[in-house]
Amino acid sequence: MQAMQTDLISEELRNRFEGATRVLVLTGAGISAESGVPTFRGGGNTAVWKGMPFDVISSARMVERDLPAVWEWFDYRRSLLQTLQPNPAHYEIARWADLFPEFTLVTQNVDGLHRTAGSREVIELHGSVWRARCLSCRTSYEILPHEQRLANCAGCGSYLRPDVVLFGEMLPPGAFEAAAEAAAACELCFVIGTSALVYPAASLPEIAKAAGAYLCEVNPERTPLSAICDEVLTGKAGEVLPLIGKS
Ligand code: OAD
Ligand code: ZN
Q1: Residue with the nearest Cα to atom 30 of ligand 1?
Q2: CB 3.0-4.6 Å disulfide test: which of 55, 60, 84, 136 passes with 168?
């Protein structure tokens, strides 16, 4: 059984993993699925909050119209998240950071589980529910689990909002550019647990591939990216990732 499992990983991928100096990992909601975080697409998600569809309550327009309602939704999400733990996939990726001279972790997730698992540098393309940001001066504040969050900016007194990318908003300045630069320079790129439908995040593996990287997807289902991948590992991230670094 053990032999069959490790056979999932090709000799080619093993060799590249051992020899790589520049590695990029892009993760999406699927990497947190085994921790109990619902994904956005495909079954069992929280599509509605107090009668409002997800893309209405999580929108730039709602921040203007009803900031307390937006906070109520994000406070609720944090209260759920603080009971959840990272899974073996998050821990394995945290370990990878020390294996390669250059390692870049880019996530679309706002749940903070990569950091909890020990990843120190994470490009959070869509922000984090564990941060608040000033509406005026953009100063950002960490929100600690089990602690009361600030309502106003300590510097200028303006209201704070969740530091996440809402529907209808741009990505945080510089985040995508830094990720794209790493994608263009990497030799090995993993795309883990993302439906690869949301741009510009989904363009990162395309950039890596176009620049000559070996592209490997980890997902129980096929995605629009599968066709351009050099290797598709069909399975759950928490089960597949620990096999990759094992000889
Ligand atoms: P999706 O919900 O679109 O896709 C989740 C993917 O994870 C699917 O392809 C699943 O097949 C896969 N999956 C499920 N369980 C898995 C497991 N155990 N291991 C590996 N993969 C698994 O999530 P994202 O691609 O992250 O944006 O969605 C992208 C963006 O859409 C999100 O960041 C969010 C949303 O709008 C913002 O909030 C700005
Ligand atoms: Zn401020």
Answers
A1: 198
A2: 60
- Residue among 90, 114, 126, 146 flagged as catalytic: 126
Q: Tell me: the pLDDT tens digits for 125-147? A: 999 999 999 999 999 999 999 88
In this structure, are residues 183 and 205 in contact, taking their beta carbons and an 8 Å threshold? yes
220 lines ligand 1 (CB under 6 A): yes
Ligand nearest to the CA of 141: 2
Q: Provide CB contacts within 8 A for 203, sequence distance 6+.
A: 180
- Do the Cβ atoms of 51 and 73 come closer than 8 Å? no
Residue 128 near residue 163, CB atoms below 8 Å: yes
Distance CA 172, CA 178 (A): 11
